[in-house]
Design a protein that fits this description.
Structural class: alpha+beta
Strand content: 15-25%
CATH architecture of the largest domain: 2-Layer Sandwich
Number of strands: 10
Number of domains: 2
Bound molecules: 3,4-dihydroxyphenylalanine
Distance between the termini: 91 Å
CATH topology of the largest domain: BirA Bifunctional Protein, domain 2
Largest sheet: 7 strands, mixed
Number of helices: 11
Shape: rod-shaped
Helix content: 40-55%
Radius of gyration: 44 Å
CATH superfamily of the largest domain: Bira Bifunctional Protein, Domain 2
Strand order of the largest sheet: 1-5-6-10-9-8-7
Low-confidence stretches: none
Order of helices and strands: HHHHHEEHEEHEEHEEEHEHH
CATH class of the largest domain: Alpha Beta
Length: 339
């Protein structure tokens, strides 16, 4: 038995020297000290020894066990230390490595200008209203006092879906929808997409954007309209901007006008931007026609209102001196990243 114990000690020592992981270490422990381990089996045989031999063999067996346990403990520490070290090495962060640049998007020029317009009107107490892009003929034309034989109804201008359903050609139908659902005082702007059956060129696109404005209340006059539009023009194009209202015709306003702003490039002296006129036309406006108020369920004997419609593309072209509307829709980053 003494020889057996000694050979166990030597075998354990040899094996433990080669161990390099915790799993291997555990395997060696089980091989010798486990429930069915070699040393355990020997200890079980103690009973069969001569009584005189037992204490001697007992203490030798204990020595061997302690010896093996001590090596295992030492090895455990070594392995843990080296594992820790390699983990730290693997996790090291090199703070000198250059960062990864994540490309950041930003707003489209049309959105930048639209946000500016909203900001200006929200600041003057207007609310934002919306309406559908697929619209009934009734809202887009009929209710806006545009008679059946009006040239705007020609299929050359309008995308019809059915005889009485179409892609709205203007944001003006939102006027009717808002009046139907609310009572004065009304003060809204309605930005949105509109569609016309136009061929694409530098100044035309089958899809573009308008911003409609509508104010209805008691005693609203053309003077109020002019004041609001003046504010708008100056906030948009600078404090020195002058405005000029020219008589015009729209079926849904009476009287109607177009508004020009003094050219912000040349200040009115004349330049290529304003085609030497000193003025640039930016919107249509007028006092809401009594029939239109009626169609919206509002009594024109008690209330009056004004309305205006601005083209967002035009505003933006002038704001940034862009000469081709197609650039807005081509998604060319070389263009878009300039704003
Ligand atoms: N809807 C008109 C257009 O598309 C623009 C317009 C003019 C709107 C005068 C208005 C207005 O509300 O009063 O040309």
């Amino acid at each position: 038995m003494k020889l057996q114990l000694e050979s166990i000690r030597n075998a354990a020592k040899d094996l433990l020297e080669k161990v390099s992981s915790k799993q291997e270490l555990e395997a060696v422990r089980i091989k010798f000290l486990g429930k069915k381990g070699e040393l355990t089996l020997i200890l079980r045989q103690m009973g069969s020894l001569h009584p005189e031999e037992r204490p001697k063999m007992g203490s030798l067996a204990n020595e061997v066990r302690e010896y093996i346990e001590a090596i295992i403990e030492k090895k455990t520490e070594e392995i843990e230390a080296s594992e820790r070290e390699s983990r730290i090495k693997a996790e090291t962060i090199d703070v000198t490595v250059p960062g990864i640049l994540h490309p950041l998007g930003h707003r489209h020029p049309l959105s930048i200008v639209l946000d500016e317009v909203k900001e200006i009107f929200l600041g003057m107490g207007f609310k934002i209203a919306t309406g559908p892009e697929i619209e009934w003929d009734y809202y887009n034309f009929e209710a806006l006092n545009i008679p059946k034989n009006h040239p705007a109804r020609d299929t050359q201008d309008t995308f019809y879906i059915t005889d009485n359903m179409l892609l709205r050609t203007q944001t003006s139908p939102v006027q009717i929808r808002v009046m139907e659902h609310s009572q004065p005082p009304i003060r809204i702007i309605a930005p949105g997409r509109v569609y016309r059956s136009d061929a694409i060129d530098a100044t035309h696109s089958p899809l573009f954007h308008q911003i409609e404005g509508l104010v209805v209340d008691k005693g609203v006059t053309m003077g109020d309209l002019k004041g609001i539009l003046m504010q708008f023009a100056q906030r948009m194009y600078g404090d020195n901007t002058k405005i000029r209202l020219r008589p015009h015709h729209f079926p849904f306003t009476e009287p109607s006008c177009e508004m020009d702003v003094s050219c912000f490039r040349c200040g009115g002296a004349g330049c290529p931007m304003c085609k030497n006129e000193g003025w640039i036309e930016i919107l249509g406006a007028g006092m809401v026609h009594p029939k239109v108020l009626e169609n919206g369920g509002i009594n024109p004997d008690i209330y009056s209102g004004y309305a205006f419609g601005v083209g967002l593309e035009r505003l933006t072209l002038f704001k940034y001196s862009i000469d081709d509307m197609r650039l807005f829709f081509e998604n060319d980053l070389k263009f878009l990243t300039q704003f």
